[in-house]
Amino acid sequence: MDIGIYALVHIALHVICTCMSFWALKSLRTEHWFKANHTQQVQVLIVIMSFALGKLISDFIMDIIYFSQQAAWL
C-alpha cells in the first residue's frame, strides 16, 4: 500500500474508531461510579477514554492489514 494512502486510511480509521468508542461509552451508566455533581469530569473522562480506545482499536486493525500484506512475502 502506498505511504500516502496508508496514512489517509489510518487517519480515517482513527476518527471512525474514536467516534464508535465515544458512542459505545456514552451508553455506560457512569453516575454510579463517580461522586455527585461531577458531570464535567465524567464527560472529560469519557472523551479521553474514547480517544484511547479508538486508537487501540484502529492500531490493531492497521497492524492486521500491515501484517497480512507482509505475509505475502513469506
Descriptive notes:
- The protein has helices at residues 3-25, 39-70.
- It is mainly alpha-helical.
- The chain has one domain (3-72).
- Helix 1 (3-25) packs antiparallel against helix 2.
- The radius of gyration is 17 Å and the shape is elongated.
- The mean pLDDT is 90.
- Keywords: Membrane, Transmembrane, Transmembrane helix.
Brief sketch in words of this structure:
With 74 residues, this protein is mainly alpha-helical. It has helices at 3-25, 39-70.
Spell out the blueprint of helices and strands.
Layout (H helix, E strand, L loop, with lengths): L2 H23 L13 H32 L4
Helix pairs in contact: 1-2
The termini sit apart by 17 Å
* Tally of helical runs: 2
Rg (CA only): 17 Å
The secondary-structure element order is HH
Domain tally:
1
Quick one: overall form?
Answer: elongated
Query: Beta-strand level of the residues, as a percent range?
Result: under 5%
Helix content estimate:
over 70%
Low-confidence stretches: none
Number of strand segments: 0
Average pLDDT rating? 90
Alpha-beta classification: mainly alpha
How would a crystallographer describe the biggest sheet?
none
Keywords:
74 residues; mainly alpha; 2 helices; 74% helix; elongated
